[in-house]
Amino acid sequence: MITYFQNYWWFLISVLGAALVSLLFVQGGQTLLPSLKHKEDKRLAINALGRKWELTYTTLVVFGAGFFASFPLFYSTSFGGAWALWMLILFSFVIQAASYEFRRKRGNLYGTGFYDFLLLINGAFGCILLGVAVGTMIFGAEFTIDKVNITRIGSPVISTWANPWNGLEAIADWRCLLLGLAILFLARMNGALFLMQSTDGGSAYFGRLRRRAMTSGIIFVPLIVLFLGVVLTSPTYVSTPDGIVCRPYGYLANYTSLWWAGVALLAGVVAVLFALMGTIVNKHRPLHYGFLLAGGGTMLVVMSLFWVMGYANTSFFPSLTDPQSSLTIANSSSSLFTLRAMTWVSAVLPVVIGYIAYVWHRMGSKPITDSDLSSEGEY
Amino acid sequence: MTDIISTVDWSRWQFALTACYHWLFVPLTLGLSVIVAVMESIYLKKGRPDKWLKLTKFWMSLFAINFVCGIATGIILEFEFGTNWSNYSWFVGDIFGAPLAIEGLFAFFLEATFVVVMLFGWKRVSPGFHLTATWLTAIGTSLSALWILVANAWMQYPVGMESNPDTMRNEMSDFWAVALSPVAMNKFFHTVMSGWALSGCFVLGVSGWLAAFGKRCDMAVPSMKVGGWVGLVGIILTMAAGHGSILQVSKSQPMKFASLEGVWKGSTNAELTAFGLVNPAKKLNNTENPFIFKVGAPGVLSWATRGSSDAFIPGIEDIIAGRDIIDGKEVNTVSYAERILRGKLALQALADYGETHSDEALQTLRENYEFFGYGYYDNPAELIPPVGMTYYAYHIMVAGGMYMLLILAGGLLLAYYRPDTINKKWWAAAAMLALVVSWIVSQSGWVCAEVGRQPWVIQNLMPTRAAISAVSPEGVKTTFWAFAVVFTTLLAAEISIMINKIRQVARK
Asked: For chain A, how many structural domains are there in total?
């Protein structure tokens, strides 16, 4: 019975993780701002992104809270262990929150340039570091778990990191970094597509965004191909009756056995590529639903990755120090009671998605123009 | 061991820093969102006069400046449970994670979605839809407070759970007992209403300045009426819920209660001290007087807490000795020495069960589990919260609350019956003092709640020192200072922007 709920909650985590990566278009868009030379262009872009940043932020929070509620052992092990990495991620997001609101306000003490710099830091490092953190879930990390420690008065911590770098070592792992860079360039492409669709700043402005979308997309494609190649040739740790064992080419095997994950991956890749190709071909106006296509494709790709990471008894957080400490959705989840209660709560999700979509539609039915920026309170 | 204690101390400092900064912004968000929603409702109800639109937009702009700082500090709080308190996250994550996830799902998305309509939707949606968005933002902020306070209340009054020795953690057994615990409900009303009261004082303070120094009585009077009513309702309900809360504390956290009241030795006809200077030399079982001096009313504490001036109120020393007198009969409440002993039995039994899965170990664990957390200690003196800090925080909160009540009621009376006086400098000074006092009161409330329950992170079950992550003290020191710099930078900018905004309005 509990297996059903564990699988359901892993699915929800995959949806939240995928939504987060898709919504990183805000961060990607922020990294494009320095390349928008004209003040008006930059202002237009910031005002479009500034109406969406809270959604990304909230999704990050809910992603974390969802993990806490459904897989608390992952929450305690990853956050408490890869502590330094998560702290860097938190810092990169904290500085974003006030930057939009404060950047053009009189009396902001540090000048507009300071807040724009913070947005750039958040955009670049937020994407890369989140990618690196997810990378540790695929390629493993050095930690051990011993629950009996809770009874040892002098050293009660159950999850311990096996090196003094507390997660920073993952930044030096080229495979994790590769995922981080892929996410950054995907976010930049999605950010440019979003701005092309949601703002109207004239043909020169459109042309600049189109070039950024193409460049980012063209860099993203080899990065993601290389990353997927690495994933498919990497081993997984799998839970068996004899304990957790290493399985070569495990992700490839999972894509074969979980065929629907493979279909989602292919559909996602095709959608993203279609959005990119459409942008290259359409020189004077945005591809109809281009942003939606790229965002949807991103979601499918990320969800499929989560599925092969967690389903089929695969460890979604392998321990390189002690394979038996590796976390699977079975050994790290909340109790049946909690998962069941939270499942009832999750019934509200369609309503949440519904009102977000409705408001997004109402607020974005017309592209933002210069004339929209004259009223008080704009960024 | 030294490293662990140092990590615990710095992690506590870091959490306290984040929580205190977060709580600088959140109460204003809670109350100002309602004030803005009321103003916008009046604007529509009165046929959209320009005056009310300007008022709404002015206070909304202050709301927005403050709102983002609350969001920035809030994300840290949630993730700190994982980064700095990872043991806690496992030991009770099965229970504690749920309200956090529900908060995100029910409240954060609501706020994040509709605040955009509220701030940028004036020309893009209909007036009715805009007003709905403003109210939904206000509701979202309160819903968010509800679930985080459910989580906090559970730490103070753990219910609806049972221990699972196989997983070596606690698991939820009754969702509604957690969600609707009386402690949580009282905490919710007390905290949210205190946000209304603080925001009322904020509006009165700013309006007082606008009237006296900005010559903007046209803005100040209607603002005072709306802010004053919201604030007055807020402070009255805060006091009512606060009384309920302190009665609950006297039953479920008697040590915290004794510390808040500064009672070391129990007595009948117990005195309620209105003010006192705590004697720092007073320790467990020494003969020092607990106060250097004090002013109080005999019998009032007994009467207010247990309904009769003859009732016995146990002090810190009685609680440690396991002594109480209820309805004239001496009651054994289990001495702390015995609790420590039984806690150690429970800890050992859990360790044994982990290795042997024996029924004997399981039975010992079950028999002693209610005192599990005491097993981490050797000396009962370690189980007393810092009396001075909690006593002062509690009394500052109560006294400051009285001042807020006075100013909110007075402000309303002036706005309705003597609007010509609100541009006087004495009123501006009194109202601006209330603005400052309201924040001190608000922070003091959390000091009472959180310092008063030390050394527990979960009452009786998990001490703060066992809740930590395996992080070096140097690491936590670094992040502490980094957060201190970032938050202070944000706060300085926020205050500066707000002052500029208010001055701008005054110039107009």
From this structure: 1
Buried b (16+ CB within 10 A) or exposed e, B281-313: ebeeeeeeebbeebebeebbbbbbbbeebebbb
User: pLDDT tens digits, residue range B428-437?
Assistant: 999 999 999 9
Identify the domain containing residue A87 by its residue range: 2-373
Instruction: Measure CB to CB from residue B68 to each of A101, A335, A349 and give the nearest one.
Output: A101
Q: How many residues does chain B have?
A: 508
CB proximity under 8 Å: B 54-73 to A? 57, 60-61, 64-65, 67-69, 71-73
Beta carbons of B105 and A352 less than 8 Å apart: yes
Domain coverage including residue B187:
2-248+387-507
Tell me if ipTM is over 0.85.
yes
What residue of A is the nearest CA neighbor of B1?
A: A154
| Residue A310 pLDDT exceeds 80 | yes
pLDDT attached to residue A119 = 96
Inter-chain CB pairs, A–B, below 8 Å: 292
The one-letter amino acid at B312 = F
Is B321 contained in some domain?
no
Report pLDDT digits (tens) over A174-208: 999 999 999 999 999 999 999 999 998 888 899 99
Longest CA–CA separation in chain B, Å: 80
Chain A interface includes B109 (CB < 8 A): yes
B464 phi, psi to nearest 5 deg = -55, -40
CB contact under 8 A, B497 and A102: yes
According to the model, what pLDDT value does residue B1 have?
57
User: Do residue B72 and residue A98 have CB atoms under 8 angstroms apart?
Assistant: yes
